[in-house]
Amino acid sequence: MLVLMKPQATEEDVARVCRKIESMGYRAHPMPGATRTAVGITGNSGPLEPAEFETLPGVAEAIPVSKPYKLVSRELKAESSLVRVGSGSDGFTFGGQDLGIIAGPCAVENREQVFAVAERVRRAGARLFRGGAFKPRTSPYSFQGLGEEGLKLLAEVRREFGLLIVTETIDSENCDLVERYADVLQIGARNMQNFSLLKRAGRSRKPVLLKRGMSATLEEFLMAAEYVLSEGNYNVILCERGVRTFADHTRNTLDLAVIPAVKSLSHLPIIADPSHGTGRRDKVLPLARAAVAVGADGLIIEVHPDPDHARSDGYQSLHPDQFDELMREITAIAAILGRSTPCPFLDVAARN
Amino acid sequence: MLVLMKPQATEEDVARVCRKIESMGYRAHPMPGATRTAVGITGNSGPLEPAEFETLPGVAEAIPVSKPYKLVSRELKAESSLVRVGSGSDGFTFGGQDLGIIAGPCAVENREQVFAVAERVRRAGARLFRGGAFKPRTSPYSFQGLGEEGLKLLAEVRREFGLLIVTETIDSENCDLVERYADVLQIGARNMQNFSLLKRAGRSRKPVLLKRGMSATLEEFLMAAEYVLSEGNYNVILCERGVRTFADHTRNTLDLAVIPAVKSLSHLPIIADPSHGTGRRDKVLPLARAAVAVGADGLIIEVHPDPDHARSDGYQSLHPDQFDELMREITAIAAILGRSTPCPFLDVAARN
Amino acid sequence: MLVLMKPQATEEDVARVCRKIESMGYRAHPMPGATRTAVGITGNSGPLEPAEFETLPGVAEAIPVSKPYKLVSRELKAESSLVRVGSGSDGFTFGGQDLGIIAGPCAVENREQVFAVAERVRRAGARLFRGGAFKPRTSPYSFQGLGEEGLKLLAEVRREFGLLIVTETIDSENCDLVERYADVLQIGARNMQNFSLLKRAGRSRKPVLLKRGMSATLEEFLMAAEYVLSEGNYNVILCERGVRTFADHTRNTLDLAVIPAVKSLSHLPIIADPSHGTGRRDKVLPLARAAVAVGADGLIIEVHPDPDHARSDGYQSLHPDQFDELMREITAIAAILGRSTPCPFLDVAARN
Amino acid sequence: MLVLMKPQATEEDVARVCRKIESMGYRAHPMPGATRTAVGITGNSGPLEPAEFETLPGVAEAIPVSKPYKLVSRELKAESSLVRVGSGSDGFTFGGQDLGIIAGPCAVENREQVFAVAERVRRAGARLFRGGAFKPRTSPYSFQGLGEEGLKLLAEVRREFGLLIVTETIDSENCDLVERYADVLQIGARNMQNFSLLKRAGRSRKPVLLKRGMSATLEEFLMAAEYVLSEGNYNVILCERGVRTFADHTRNTLDLAVIPAVKSLSHLPIIADPSHGTGRRDKVLPLARAAVAVGADGLIIEVHPDPDHARSDGYQSLHPDQFDELMREITAIAAILGRSTPCPFLDVAARN
Question: Does the pLDDT at position D228 exceed 60?
């Protein structure tokens, strides 16, 4: 059930609706919009009676919601959400005019490596830095990340370069630690339906970057986000990173159509990961262009100073020079869609 | 086996190599390049001895080819192929700087319909017109196309609007008829491994538009093209039209990564079909932008003057006004990649 | 629309309904059942008025059919169909108590090979012999079959061993030739939506073995059969041969659940092909057992006297001794489901 | 690296090899076999020198292992593993002659429900009882299980009916609780790559039932088991429960070929879940027969006293009478493969 308030409803009207909902044993989710507020109701197992709410002052309408997702839905909140990461002048807002560019190595290896990448990606216009300290690896014998030592190096990157830190949390216990260092909690594809972790992230005050599972339908993807929102954390950035199909020319099949599909159903921002989405360095640039052209709100890109000797996923990491070229090209495409990137390279304009 | 001639080899040198190959019972495929000619050998069931050819005058090297495809391969022919459709001033070349835009209704219904669409798409910059006269339909009870009457209407469209005609042929007998009317023979996804039809198209003098099968790997796709080339018709344009996956938010999953993958393995041009690739009108525009951004050599788009009353696939056809918008946006993106479209709309530049 | 006659309706009542349907420009398909006859109507593009038929003598009810398939449907014909192949004492009926076992090499290579296999599979209980004379191959450079010479060898096998011949037809022209030699026309997975070939097979008097396409849904599979029936040939045997998925431990994923699914929706018999369904010799026996246990009406199995030197698909062909073992095991499983095979081996009972 | 001991090697020889491995900083995994012991080495990041071990007393050979999995591999341990659940007369061993039958409701709802099911499935021959107390649900608003109250009801079922308890653990914290009540820790498909949970289960003394992920390759499935073994818990039972494909006639596609594939690569037992593998009640019985025929070591089946009113997944749960029929049919099939079930129904023999 979704309770739509009248444009002129007062804060007290909204509060009264929330109290009513809670007195019935359910949970109220007030979502203020540009012209009016909507209040989502969750926790009810069966349908509710609209008349219970429509008779309250300031209520325009009470709408039964049929889709299984509620809080992530555009029916609940028509305006696209802006997700603010960090604060002050180094902060960044996803979902606005600027594309959010997250770049960095797959795994944090050592200070030299992260500093080398951070310096280059910051210079090319990235405002967020990625790097795994806890790596979910298919094999128990593969490098699993530096752990807290890696997180500390990421904190140094933030201090030194003013980059916001995006790093993965792999279970709810681990979340306590990662939260202390990260600006954005990343939940990986293999954990998209790790509901314990989703609930824990939903109780965090940090924004969440939620990657689509390898065989998740659009509905399952939105329901995973719904778990986070239903715990009270509305700052979720979705990420398409390729799905598993029979096609063997790339590691995954990047499903770019899910981007406009998410945008028509949900108010949440969505970015694309062409590095994991293709698994091959020479496909990252063309698919990054395509992702921006299809309407993504940003990109997450693997960059390594020496990809051939990376400790994980090096064959899909870009050289820093390739990342420069990527920034030039996507900035030009973004402009056609009325968007921009923080890319400072002068020759972009020249090329246009 | 691939026989690479020296840059200074004479025509007689090439002819001598071909005669040698044919005297051994195989087939020779001379492919002239910008700096030198290569001669492909097909028909041999096992490996050949390089020395048999390397001792002939004008031969630089004889290279055993390990990939199952030969004639479609960039190893055989390093330069991208230009596929010329039609002739004279109305002719068009795929694979060059200009993107090839094919537009029109799913099925030819009547003169009023095709003329209405043709006038609009020609005005917006399409140089080729699509429209099915023979429709492969999942149900035997669905509209199967107007047949030869439809082909005649397409011929009228060519005469009246100077548009080149792309239309589907559904079996080898039918090919005799379609060939008389069409400028490009389209082979649909369901027929991608109809080897009889591929061989028949390989003996045609008309270029072939070959759509990827619904679950075809990249190798199978290139091998289907190889069938056409192996019969002597080198004018093949490939087309990505979406593959079948578990994802249910679009009718198919448009696999845009196959476009750079084809370009690195093959010299053939490749276009994208965002209409069938998504199956939903509101996804055609964003995926068309993405396809151009990823590097496609063109697009094939369904346009209908009254999509809601179309006799087939209306829900994925654009209104003519939406096609105008599509042409504006892809023209701007093409420019960033150093390419162009024949779109004449002045406000493109303005928007940039 | 489906017109159900009353149990006591006369032949003249049925004929009157058919004439009425044909006078409206549609096609009538009378299907006699055990207790009453149903008449299917095809060729109508929109819904018909039940009252048009319900007022005729002998008519019980006229039912609008919502599923896209009609003639293949159990709604039209509740009893399972029996498909008779061949005639006289060598004839065999699919869909009855006996499982139909089709065995033989992938491709016909020479008399010695086919005779060697035929002798062994006949002895083990196969009543039908498979062998390709026209092979649809992914590569134009692979062995494409012996053509008519192969068909003649198959005819010799029939004469010598009393085996019924199942062989593939690859296009509608080729069908004229294959029909003269074969007892069952096989349509391969790649041609499941070659509608020209389906229609041609629908006009044949020989039964059709229709394999499921590599990415065909159940509905598409049944619609392909509907094409054959809609042309008048009701003798169709379906065949599950594996679908394409991400799983890479077998060549295809044998979808055994489609067998009970077909049986609940359609009256047609369905068999399984564990040779193509797995693509690996060591998986053929366990999946053959599973197919019989799930309720298949038969199996088609590749057997070769010397699989390691077969000219195509040898790695999935059984040795004759392995086929003996297969027959023993499936015969025992069949008995549990109240079915039987023509396997004569005495030790089957002993083993139980 | 795998160190194979000679058949006559002493315990001290084995211990010496283990000490050597540990002194190098790696982990030793001695696995005693029927004729000789093998010692797996894990923890090394690169290749080791065979000579380091082959010079030790009692060592036959040191073999570099190329597959990414080691401990789960038949190369390490040629004999099939027996996994013992529970102890004493109520204990059960997976991987031996008897098929392990796990039956019960999807979710524990109340005492009446679990007792009603337990009484029936025990009577029909099940030796293990399934029932979820913590349910991973796609929607945060769906019933998530009774939690510890549910575990207590399961403990009552064990006491009352002598059934062993199989129940799901959803994260590593939750594992502490579940372990106190369960005889087998179930890890669901969505958690197959929740590496934190896998490691936690690897430190448990309870056997683990590991379900294949919805889009897991065979290698990923075995690597997930490797995580559990690498922590020291060698008691893993694998479970095929259907994979995600384009096919829409069942909820998942049960990939039965994975069962013989696992058996050729790994010594671990594997069972099948036809309830989740099909998602439809009328498909459970035929696919259960097929799973036993293909060689599964057991089944896990959902049974509910009143499936139409179940709080989760009722549409795939069997009525108790249907479960009786299932036990009869699979018992007869098992006999053909030289296996048995604890099913006591007398008419099984009669039917055969």
Answer: yes
Residue D76: pLDDT band (50, 70, 90) is: confident
Contact assessment for residue B112 and residue B146, using Cβ atoms and an 8 Å cutoff? no
CB contact (8 A) between residue C264 and residue D282: yes
C141–A contact, CB cutoff 8 A? no
In angstroms, what separates the C-alpha of C251 from chain B's closest C-alpha?
13
Residues of B in contact with A289 (CB under 8 A): 293-294, 337
Chain B adjacent subunits, 3+ CB pairs under 8 A: A, C, D
Chain A residue with minimum CA distance to B329: A336
| Mean pLDDT of all residues in B320-333 | 97
Task: Please tell me if residue B97 touches chain D, with a CB cutoff of 8 Å.
Answer: no
C134-162 per-position pLDDT tens digit? 999 888 888 889 999 999 999 999 999 99
- The arithmetic mean of pLDDT across residues A164-189, rounded, is 96
What whole-number distance in Å separates Cα of residue A209 and Cα of residue C18?
64
Contact yes or no for A253 and B255 at CB 8 A: yes
Mean of all residue pLDDT scores within chain C: 92
Interatomic CA distance for residues B317 and B307, integer angstroms: 6
CB D249 within 8 A of CB C223: no
- For residue C293, give the nearest of D253, D290, D335 by CB distance: D290
ipTM of the complex: 0.86
Phi, psi of D203 (to 5 degrees): -100, 5
Write the CB contacts of B39 (distance below 8 Å, at least 6 apart in sequence). Answer: B2, B3, B5, B14, B17, B18, B21, B28, B29, B30, B31
pLDDT for the residue numbered C61: 83
CA–CA separation, B265 and A280 (whole Å) = 15
Given CA atoms C290, C296, C300, C303 in this order, what sign does their dihedral have?
A: positive
DSSP 3-state assignment of C61?
A: strand
Q: How far is B282 from chain A (nearest CA, A)?
A: 9
pLDDT in tens, C95-104: 999 999 999 9
Distance separating alpha carbons of residues C75 and C63, to the nearest angstrom = 10
**B136 touches B161 (CB < 8 A):** no
pTM value surpassing 0.80: yes
Q: How far is CA A349 from the centre of its chain?
A: 29
Taking CB atoms and an 8 Å cutoff, what residues of chain B touch D245? 246
Across the interface, of A254, A293, A332, the residue whose CB is closest to B257 is A254
Torsion on CA atoms B241, B243, B249, B251, rounded to nearest 10: 60
pLDDT digits (tens, 9 = 90+) for B224-272: 999 999 999 999 999 999 999 999 999 999 999 999 999 999 999 999 9
Q: Does D246 touch chain B (CB under 8 A)?
A: yes
- B107: which residues sit within 8 A by CB, 6+ positions away? B131, B132, B133, B135, B143, B145, B146, B150, B310, B311, B312, B313
Whether D217 sits inside 8 A of C254 (CB atoms) is no
**DSSP, residue by residue, D294-326:** HT-SEEEEEB-SSGGG-SSSGGGPBPHHHHHHH
Contacts C251 to A, Cβ<8 Å: none
List chain D residues with CB under 8 Å of C292. 293
Q: Is D240 on the interface with C (CB under 8 A)?
A: no
Structure-derived torsion over alpha carbons of residues D41, D47, D51, D52, reported in degrees to the nearest 10: -50
C-alpha to C-alpha distances, D234 to D71, D123, D207, D208, nearest whole angstrom: 8, 31, 8, 9
Q: How far apart are CA A328 and CA A345, in angstroms?
A: 7
CB contact under 8 A, A287 and B294: yes
Chain pair C-D, CB pairs under 8 angstroms: 124
